[in-house]
Amino acid sequence: MIGSQVLAGFQPDHRGEDALALAGVVLRHTLGSLTVASVRPPAAVAGHTAGGADAEWQAYLDGQARAALDGAAGVLEEVGLPEGTGVDYVVGANRGSGRGLSALARKTRSDLIVIGSAPGGPRNGISIGSTADQLLHGSTVPVLVAPKNYAAHRLEGFDRITVAYLRRPGSAEAVEFAARIAAARGVPLRLLTVAVEHTATGRAARLAEEEQRRVVDRYEAELALAAKEAADGSALSPEQIETEVVQGPDVAQAIAATGWSPGDALVIASSEAGPLRKVFMGDMSLKILRAVPCPAVVLPRLIPH
């Protein structure tokens, strides 16, 4: 089960707290183990030459990373983990923190990477920084991103699983993954498709409206089929699966037009154009990720079991 070995990237600020809080929610269900990681830059980045100065600078960077992990231990005491949860603390070195986390995930055989949102941008929701960008275009395991201020909610679990759905290669696997989680947690599953409205004036407005109706009708039919497949292939009943086509002039406004709660979790499949066995996000998926107010997990092509 994904989430049996969780790697949480930690920064000594709110994003680190959000990541650990979200990792705790996952582990309350999987009863797995946790590795908390701090990725520091390699000593050579600072331009030091080999020898004593380089070794001294490396020791300083290691000390800073270890101090951050000491802070993580304090955060975990507040977050609370299931009794008996194994926790390890590791320091990695890489020019890119996202690439460093990917390398540590392979080294620790983690099956899920959890990170917080980058600073800046809207007060709530998900912001994509360099760490997330590197992971969302190259991780070999699912990447779970916490929205800002997630830790403040002190949630014990998820209360609904939503799939950003578009019928294409990889969508069936994403629905199957989400349905397993929803069934195991006893929460409903929602299949959600975003239909961006095309603006036009005059005679073109009527044609655009007719085309929009055709698109929505097609999406609703595809969602109905996906919901039936999810019910047939999981322990969920048809009544536990809802479908929705949400519309708006852009992705952000469409996402805002539907209901969300802090206990929601979103599942997104990787773009079919990306490399096999890695996470790779397309433009639409990135827009959805930036618009949702809840945690979101992005799956690699060929989801690991």
Polypeptide structure, described:
This protein is of the alpha/beta class. Helices cover 40% and strands 19% of the residues. It is built from 8 helices and 10 strands. The protein has helices spanning 14-30, 52-79, 97-108, 130-135, 171-185, 203-232, 251-256, 283-291, and strands spanning 5-9, 33-40, 87-93, 112-115, 143-145, 160-164, 189-196, 241-248, 264-269, 296-299. The protein has a 10-stranded mixed sheet with strand order 3-2-1-4-5-10-9-6-7-8, with helices on both faces.
- What structural category characterises the helix and strand content? alpha/beta
β-sheet strand percentage? 15-25%
Number of helices: 8
* Major pleated sheet: 10 strands, mixed
Mean pLDDT across every amino acid position: 89
Spatial strand arrangement across the major sheet: 3-2-1-4-5-10-9-6-7-8
- Rough outline: globular
List keywords for this structure.
alpha/beta, 10 strands, about 300 residues, about 40% helix, 10-stranded mixed beta sheet
Q: How are the secondary structure elements laid out?
A:
Elements (H helix, E strand, L loop, with lengths): L4 E5 L4 H17 L2 E8 L11 H28 L7 E7 L3 H12 L3 E4 L14 H6 L7 E3 L14 E5 L6 H15 L3 E8 L6 H30 L8 E8 L2 H6 L7 E6 L13 H9 L4 E4 L6
